Amino acid sequence: MAHPFLVKDIAFQAGLSTATVDRVLNGRPGVRQQTQLRVNAAIAELEKQQTGATSGGRILAIDIVMETPQRFSDAVRAAFESEMATFLPGVFRCRFHFAEVMKPAELAQLLDRIRLRGTDGIVLKAPDVAEVAAAVARADVAGIPVVTLVTDLPNSLRIAYAGADNRAAGETAAYLIGEFLGGDGGKVLVTLSSGRFRGEEEREIGFRRIIRSRYPDIGITEISEGHGSDRATGTLAAAALATDSAINAVYSIGGGNRAVLAAFDAAHRPVRVFVAHDLDADNRALLAAGRIGFVLHHDLRTDARSAFRAIMSRAQAPGLAVPASLSSIEIVTPYNMPACG
Fold this sequence. Notes:
Rossmann fold
C-alpha cells in the first residue's frame, strides 16, 4: 500500500496501535476487515489534509469526541473538514470519535486514552456528568485544552464553549410556536435525546419560560431518553400521543424527527407547527417537503472555527484566557434554506 505517511501518523489518525497498522500495511494475516478499512480511511484522511499543508506550517492534531446520532455527527465532520484548510500555514489534523450512545464511564475512558496517547486539543460533545468533568480535569492538568461543542460543561475545566446560546434558542422556539398557535391553545410535545446534556436542558428551560410567561394556554408534554434514535424516539412519541389527545405541536430538541412525524401519522393526528434544530440531511428533506415548519440553525463551520481558534490561542499563549464566542441562531423555513456546505 503506497503512501508517504509514517506508521505512527496513520496509527494516530486511525486510533490503532502502530503494531496493528504495520500488520495491515504489510499484508500480514490475522487482520479483521474492519481494521483494514480503518487504516484505509486514515490514509485517505491524511491525504486530504496534506493538500492544504505547507512545509513551514505547524500541525495541531486534535480529537473530536461526540455522543450524538450519526445524522448530526456527519454534519459536524463535514464542518470540521471544511474549516481545516482555512487555518494555513498552520494545519489541523482531526481524528473523530463518534458514538450514538456512550456510558459516562466509556466516555471518560476514551478521553483518558486520548490524553495518554497525546493530542494538541479535544473538542467534546458530551453529557454534563461528574465522570466526564473529571476526565476533562485530567486533560487540563496534562496541558491538553478541551473545547465543548454545542452543549457545554460549564463547571468543568474546559477552556471554551463553541456553539449557540441554547437558552435563547429555546425561547425562540417558544415564540414561534406560541405565535403560530395563537389563542387556540393545545399542547407541545417537547422531545429531548437525554436529560444529561446541558445544551438540551438549557433549550428546554428557555422554552418553558416563554411559554409560561407569554402563552399560558399552551401546555407541554416532554419525552426524553430516546437518544435521538428513530426507533426509541418514535416509541416514546407514540406513547405520548396515545395518552394525550391535546398534543398538536412539536418542539424537537433531541432529533428523531422522521419517527415523531410517523407517530403522528399512525395516530391520524395533525401537527399544526413543528420546530426542529440543525440542518442535517433529515431536516433538510423534511423542511423541503413541508413536514416541519422551522429549523433553528447555527452554522457548524462557525463552531468549528471557534474551536480551532480556541485551541490555537491556547497553544500560542498558554496563560491567557480564551474569549467566548457564540454562533448566531437563524430561523430557517422552506424558502430560505442555505445551500449545503
